[in-house]
Structure formats: C-alpha cells, structure tokens
Amino acid sequence: MKKLLGVYHTNSDSEESLMIQEDGKIHIEFGNSKLFKNSTLIHERDKVIRDPLGDDNDVTGEGVFDFRYGPVTAGVGKAGVYHLFTYGERILRVKIDPSYNRREVDKRMEGKSIEESLNLAQNICGNFCVSHSLAFSRAVEEALEIEVSNHVKILRAVALELERMYNHMYVISRLAAAAAQLVLTSHLQGLFEDLLVVNEKFSGSRFLRNFIDISGVKFIPTIDVLKDVSENVQKISTNFSKLFEQSLASRNYIDRLHSTAVLDAKSAQEIGLTGPSLRACNVLEDLRKGEEVYSSLRIVTDEEGDSLSRMEVRAHEIIESAKFIVESVQKLEIEDRNVNEFLPSNDGRGEGLGACESPSGSVVYHVDIEGGKVKKLYVSTPSLFGFAAITHSMCENNIFTDFPFAVESYGVNFADAAR
Amino acid sequence: MNFMYFTFLFFVFGALITFWKKTSYLMATFASVFAFITSIVGLNAPFSSGMYKIFDGFELSVGIDHTSSIFLLIASISWFAIALYSIDYGVNYSKKMPIFLNAAFFGMFMVLTAKDAITFMIGWEIATIFSYLLIMEHKHSFKEAFEFLAFGEVSTISLIIAFASLYFKNHSLSFVGTHGTWLFLLMATIAFMTKMGIFPLHTWLIGAHSRAPSNVSAFLSAPLTLMGVYGLVRALSISGQPEWWGIMAMIFGGISAFWGALQAVAAKGLKILPAYSTIENDGTILATLGLSITAFAFQINVLGEFAMLTTLIVTFSHVITKTLLFLAVGHAKEALNEESIDDVRGVWKAVGKIPAFSMVISALSFSVFPPLIGYVAEWMTLETLFQSYKIPSMTARITAAFIGILLALAMGMAAFSMIKLAGYTALGYDHEKRAKKIPHFNMNLAEIILISVIAGAGFLSPLVVKLFGYKKFLFGLLGVPKPFLIVSSHPIFGVVSPTFLAIVACVLGIFPAIFYLLKKKRVRRVDAWNGAIALKEGEYFSAPAYSFTLEYILRKVYATKEIKSGNKRYVSVKDVIYDMYYGLNRAVKSISNVLSATLMNGHIYSYVLYTMIVFIFIFFISR
Questions:
Q1: Residue B209 in domain
Q2: Which of A247-251, B206-210, B450-454 has the highest mean pLDDT?
Q3: Which of A128, A296, A356, A402 has a CB 3.0–4.6 Å from the CB of A398, allowing a cystine?
Q4: Do residues B59 and B206 both lie within one domain?
Q5: pLDDT band at B59, cuts 50/70/90?
Q6: Do residues B587 and B444 both lie within one domain?
Q7: Which residue is closest to B567 within chain A, CA to CA?
C-alpha cells in the first residue's frame, strides 16, 4: 500500500511532487496529495497534529474539557503539548501540538553548504542523529552521484543499528517504568548505559554524533575496537533476552500494554506510519529490506497492533540488530577498508532522495543542490506520523492510565516531529 | 400560649397582606420568631388549649408538649431564615408567593401543635397543597409539582387509613390517651416516609427541589421533611415501640442514606445534589430512630434515649444546614442564572463572599468537619451504631451492623459530593461571568444567621443536648468541665467535646492569625497555570469529570452510559428507581385503556354492568 510521507513540491492541486513509501522503498511521484487521507496532516504539519482519519473539530459536551498536558511538565520529555479531551478518565480525542519544539532546522539548512547542512541534519533530533545524517548524506550522494564503498555502508549500518538498539532499549525501559516495574527498569537502564558506552567506543560519541559523513564516515574504528563492540553488543543482547523473557511473565506489566492504543494495519498505513509501530500491525515493511548490507537481517512483525506488540517488535529488533552487528563486524574484519573522499562529480548540482530506517520509522530527505549548497530541502520524519497514530489509537477506548503506555510505545519525540 | 396564637395570627395576616410583598414576608418572619418563643416556652412548660368538641369522638385541640417543642424550635429557625431571605429573593416572583409561603408555614405550625388527628390532617393538607402551589411558582414546573402532589396525596390517603384505624380502636382521634394498632403504625409510617423522601419513595423530591424557586427548595428540603420525622415520632408515641418497626426503619433508613449519598455523588445539577443529600440525611434520621425504637423494645433505655437524642441532633443539623445550603445555592443560581454545578463556578468572586462562605460552611458541616453541628450529629450516629451490640436480638444486631456499613459509606460519599458542590461553586475558578445585581441584604443576613447557628450549635452542642432535655448525656472528665463533654452511654462508652475542640482550635489559630496580620505581607495573585502557561476557559477540570471514575466503576448501579452524538460526548447516569415508576406509570395507563375500552366505553349496557359490579363489591365489603 502506498503511503504518503511528504509533499516536496506543489504546482497545483493535481500536480504535486509526492514522497511515497511503497513496499519498503521510497520514491517520488507526481499526483494529488488530497487523494491520501493524511494529506492535511502533511500540509499542516507545523500546526497541531490531529487524527488524520477522524474529525477535525474538537469534541464538546457536558463536562468535556481539554486536559492540557504540557508544554513544560513532568512526563513530557521535550516541550510539546498533548491536548486530551475528556469528561474524566476516558480519553475522547487527542490533538498534539509540537510547535514549541519547532526550530526550523530544515529551513535553516537551505542556503547552507553541504557540510553545514549535515551538521544541522543531525541536530534535528539528537537520538536519531545517525538516521538523519545518514538519510541526508544519501540524498546528497544521490544528487551528486557519489559512490560509497561497501566498507562504509557496513560501518554506517552498524552505527544505525547501534542507534536502534539504544533507542529501543530506552523505549522499553520507559514502558517498564510507566508500569512501575522498578527492577526491570533499573536493569534496562543499566543496559542502556552499556549501549552508550559501546557507542562511544565505536564512534567517539555516546550518542553517535558526527559519525556519518558525506560519502563516508568521520571516524573509523580499529579492528580491535570493532571486536570489542561486537562482544559487548552480544553480551548486552543476551542479558536483554533474559530480561525480556522474564518481563513477559509479569502480568502486571503485560496487562498494562495489552489492548492499549490498538491500531489496525489499514489505519496505520493511511496515517503514513512506518517503522516498528507499523510492523507491530503485521505489515512487513522496512527500508533496510532493500539494502544489500542487510541481506541477512530478519524483519520482525507482530499481529495485535497494540502497545504490547510495539514493545515486542522493538525487543526482537534489539536482538536482531545485535546479531547483525556481530555479523557485520566479522565482515569488516575481511573487508577492504576503503573510504571515499567527498569529491562531487557534477559541479555540486543536482537533486537527490535519501532515506533510512530510523529506530521509529522512515527518515526521508529530498535535497536540491546548487553550487555546492542546499538550495531546497524537504525532510519527512517518522515522529509526525507516530504522533498522528497516537491521536488515532488513543481515542474513545483508552483511559488516562493508558496514556504513557501508548505514547512511549510509539517511540516518538517532539524534536523529530517539529524539526 | 399567647405566643402560639400570635404565630397563627401573623401567618394569617402575612397571607392576607400580599399586596405588600415585603411586608407579607416580614409577617412570616415575625410569626417565625413567635413560633420560636412558643417552642422555648413549650420546652419548659408544655401547654394545651383544651378540647373543642365538634361531635362525639371528634374534638379539635392544639398545644405544645416536649416533643413538638423540639421540632417547632428546629422548624422555626428554618422558617425565619427562609422568610427573611424571601424578602429580597421574592422580588422576582409573583404576589401569590407570600400567600402560599405564609399558608404553608401556617399548615406546618398546625401539624406541630395538633393534639388530634383532624387538626393534624388539616395542617398536613394545607402544607401539602400550598407547597404544590409554591413549586408551581417556577415556570414550566407543572410536571414536578404534580408529581409532588401525587406523592403528597399518597401520604394523605395513608394517613386517613392510619387515623381511621386509630379511631376504630379507640373511638377517639385524640393523640392523648389513645393507642395505635400495627395498621395505624404501618400506614402512618408509609405516609411520613413519603414526606421524608425515603427510598424508594424519594423521586418526587428530586424534581420538586430542582425546579422550585430556591426559597421553596429550602422549605421542601428542611422544614417539610421535618414534618415527616415529627409525624413518625408522634405515631410511635401513640403506638408504642415494636421491634419490627425498628428493624424496618433501620433497613429503609440505611438504604435510603446510601442511595441518596450515591446519587448525590453523580449529580450534576446545582440543586439536584442537595436534593439527594436530603434523602441521605433523612435516611440517617430514620435509621437512628429505628435503632432507638429497637433498643426501647428490648428495654435498653439508655441506648434508646441516646439514639433518640441522635435522631434529634441529626434532624436539627440537617434542617438548619440544608436550609442554608439551598438558600446559598439559590443566591448563586439567581445571580448567575445557571443550573449546573459546572456553570456556577467562582461564587466567591462573582456573587459574593457570604453566599460562598455559606456553601463552604454547610458543605463542611455535612462533611463532618469539627466542631460544626454536622460533626456532632455524625459522631452520635456512629456511637449509636457501635452500641448496637447491646441489643439481645441477633436479627437486630446483624441489621444494625449492615446498616452501620451503609451509613459509614454514605458519610464518606457525602463528603465527596459536598467537596464537589462547594469546591466547584464557592471556591472554583470563576468563569469571569458577571452576576446579576439583585437586592441581597436580607439574603445575606439570613445566611449569616444560619452560619452562626451551625457554628454555635456545634460549638455549644452540649447546651443543645441540655435544651432538648437529655442532660444525662452530659458529663465532665479529664479537665473538661461538666457539662461540656457529651457521653454516649452510662457507663461511659464514647465521649466528645466539640466545645473543647473549638477552644483548642481557636488558641492554636490565634497566634498564627496574629502573626499573619502583623506581617501584612503583600499578596500577589496570578492566574492558575498548568504546564507553564495560564489555563484557558475550556481547560479547567470539570465537575462531571470529578465523579466519572465512580460512575464508571459503579456503572451497573448508575446505569452509566457514555453517549456519542456527532462531536458531542457526555455521560448519562440515572436513578434506576425512576424506571420502576415509569413501568408503574405505563402499567396504569395500559389498564386504564383496557378498562375504558371495555367497561367505560359509552355503551349503556356496559355502564349498567359496571355499576352493578361496584354495587355488589361495596355490598360485600360493607357486610
């Protein structure tokens, strides 16, 4: 099923450049965005996020009020507002305002050099910095027809999987904390910290910043470092597997996630949802599927589409990413350590589309480069659709105590959505 | 005795000079003062006017004994406040209202002073009919007024049967020297329970209270239901104290208290919540009266007397506090012209400090806040129930234990609902609404007087106990001088001294107050905020949301429905007893249709057949 992720260029209603994801591949096609149900969401993404499949109006009635959660309050990680319409306990409708985090990073990238823009791209969202910088780099590389060596592709993939692992670990620890599973939370936070230490060994940065470069990587770890990374990742994965199995035996924990914020596959795709949240709705779609370096990767799906499924998909992805990293390090040991220099081959001019599978879904960049500078840029972030999915899946059948389980399970954040 | 005649006279005079509305209400105020004096005189020296014989067995008589004095004292305070309040409040209503109000007070005064069934019935009917007319003073309230009248007439018919039974047994309708049968007591109980709005005979009370003008709501809730309590006490004094009645009263009282409190929690209407609170209070009164009668039935006289004192104190607390609550709520409702709790927020700022403070004080009293009179009443209720183990009957003990659970739950829920009412209306964030300018001097004065009575009667509750003639429950212990300690039994079972509590609270409060006043700190007021920005109008936590969790958990009891209609969402709860009456109503209509189609169908033969059947039926009955 085609999913609209962005509208790059508009000439008229019927002639728009649409950023489409279909069967795990991104492409641009011309057409009318209004034929997609998430058209308004995309066109008004810098305003309030509403349920793309629901009513645009606020819900009213006797006793109904807007329980505003945010912008600055405990439990909301970054500045943003959840408007929860309720008559007490039952969540009737949700709208989300990410505008407090709107920094216009994407706008500021326009007119900047490619290097400056790359730096800004990773600033869009700190915990997705590999995803953003990689997607941007890929767009630039396509625009400027730059070839990337296999060695670099593997190193980038390892960085991306490390980013996935620590993000997923964080999401699962937040879910455990919301269910007051204090022992489990502490163990998961310990593993999260271990992953940050691994990141630092691998890239020189706990959050993998400044690792990705146009046509290459900025930091090349030695074989010994890679082996160390591989061993540690394996160990973390084993420990996590045990914890995960034990956590599934806790009814207190599982009951809070089961049947919470249920989303069906059709709605998820109409909203434009990608990533583990989509795969939790039993849709086998992942941008990594089409990449050669990921040929051995097993894509994880689940059936229920609830918070539990989303958590389980993330948990299995941690294990699969660890396996992938171990295998990749073995490949890197025998791979020619060839890294291209950034040498534009078409006078710094062209258009390119770049994407990657971030921990929460597809990050897609479309760049228009002229004279070595970014002339025009469009970025589609997974959190926008994640928030929209929250607004849809939280309505009517959920209560306030479900809220943290719903929000955390989507692994979204305001910085990513607001840019 | 002259004061009694003055009372009658002033009520009649007040009803006649209705062309001067304010003077008419003022006459009712004076009459209430005379009624109060009559009660004080009656407490010390009961008197009677003597018999006015009409024919054999039918004598009319009025007078005051100890029991009627207590009830008259309570009623007169409420009448006084309502009449004084009506001087300002009545400006917006017709000239007929003071006639009806004076006449209704007159009827109630007759009930309280009646020494025979005929006088009692006349007073009862006057009070009922003029109450009906008072409810009708509010536009579009015919249905509720008619419902009140229907229940009122059920009460009257039950009373006629009761008094007929009394006459057949004693060949006299006098309350003195006669003895009632079980039928008398049963029918009288049904009559008075209907007037008190006891479950499941309470539905009239909700519509009538919420639709009537607020001074009438106060009148219906407080002095009129008081007549029911008085009727029960009077009926029991005629028929003795059977155990079955005590157990039955405990069951109906306990269920009523629980049901009233439960429905009050979910109430959204400004006057519906106090109306259900009335059902709860009247249920508590009936339950304690039931325990008193059960104890007397087993000759446990100390417990019986303490339970009777509890009944009187709870009654006193309910009547005075509920009068204040309805008057204050009416004050706010009139000024803001709104019906729901959610829409009458910010009374303190928008309407005035006195009505807001009145709401808070009455809510605190109902929430058992020491040393207010409500605290004393609830303490006594629990002490009475704790002593039920002294009753030898296992049935009575088990009943009392379960009723104790229901009453304790009711008390908790009452506090919950009162926080909802006062918290949202008196102390809630205001809507920036402008209150309508209404004359309010007398309204404020009436509210201040009632606040003083609630606080004073709590603070000096030992003196109230003494005034009611139960000084055997006053004691001195551990530095608290006699008579400022109330004891619940002899030998001592439990003790409380609201006076001592109040003095300690005052001493502890004086120094912080002096310190606070001397500091003269500037108070900086800011808008309420959440998440770093000021709250907007639609972001305040609503009153229905406050109780939704309970409505959802008890959805089977409340028949809770979450309604969706387009973009509108709301929660619907109902008192399922209405369904019972709705079913009854439909059944009566169906039978009526069948009868009109068969027997009364306009054909002469059917008519003759119908007449003959009725004739034969009456013939056999009369044999």
A1: yes
A2: B450-454
A3: A402
A4: yes
A5: confident
A6: no
A7: A59
Strand-pairing partners, residue A113, are A373
Domain-located, residue B118: yes
Best of A66, A83, A87, A99 to mutate (most B CBs within 10 Å, chain B): A87
Give yes or no: residues B417 and B341 share one domain. Answer: yes
B534 touches chain A (CB under 8 A): no
CATH class of the domain whose range is A105-383: mainly alpha
- Could you give the residue ranges of the DSSP H alpha helices within B437-542? 441-459, 461-467, 498-519
Name the strand (E) or helix (H) holding B379. helix B373-386
By C-alpha distance, which of A98, A7, A17, A10 is closest to A50? A98
Q: Total domain count for chain B?
A: 3
Does B572 reach chain A within 8 Å, measured CB to CB? no
Q: Is the peptide bond before B491 cis (omega within 30 degrees of 0)?
A: yes
**Confidence check: pLDDT of A338 > 80:** no
Q: Tell me the mean pLDDT in the region B179-201.
A: 94
Closest-CA distance, A88 to chain B, in angstroms, reads: 4
Q: Alpha-carbon distance A322 to A235, whole Å?
A: 9
In a domain, B499, yes or no: no
B459: pLDDT strictly greater than 80? yes
Of A108, A202, A191, A188, residue with least CA distance to A159: A202
Residue B200, in any domain of the structure = yes
**pLDDT digit string, tens, across residues B395-441:** 999 999 999 999 999 999 999 999 999 999 998 877 777 778 888 89
* Mean pLDDT of all residues in A49-61: 87
Task: Give the domain extent around B566.
Answer: 542-575
Predicted pLDDT of residue B57? 64
Residues in Cβ contact with B532 at an 8 Å cutoff, skipping those fewer than 6 apart: A71, A72, A73
Other CB atoms within 10 Å distance of the CB of residue B615: 10
Instruction: State whether A88 and B570 contact (CB < 8 Å).
Output: no
Q: What residues does each domain of chain A span?
A: 37-101, 105-383
The answer, for A75 touching chain B at a CB cutoff of 8 Å, is no
ipTM entry: 0.82
Residues of chain B contacting residue A88, judged by C-beta atoms under 8 Å apart:
542, 544-549, 571
What DSSP assignment string belongs to A176-239? HHHTT-HHHHHHHHHHHHHHHHHHHHHHSSTT-TT-EETTEES----HHHHHHHHHHHHHHHHH
By C-alpha distance, the chain B residue nearest A86 is B545
Distance from CA of B530 to the nearest CA of A (A): 7
Task: DSSP letter for B91, please.
Answer: G
Phi/psi for A368 (5° steps) reads: -125, 110
- Distance from C-alpha of A414 to C-alpha of A101, rounded to nearest angstrom: 6
- Within 10 Å of residue B623's Cβ, how many Cβ atoms? 5
Q: What pLDDT digit, counting tens, does each position of B224-256 carry?
A: 999 999 999 999 999 988 999 999 999 999 999
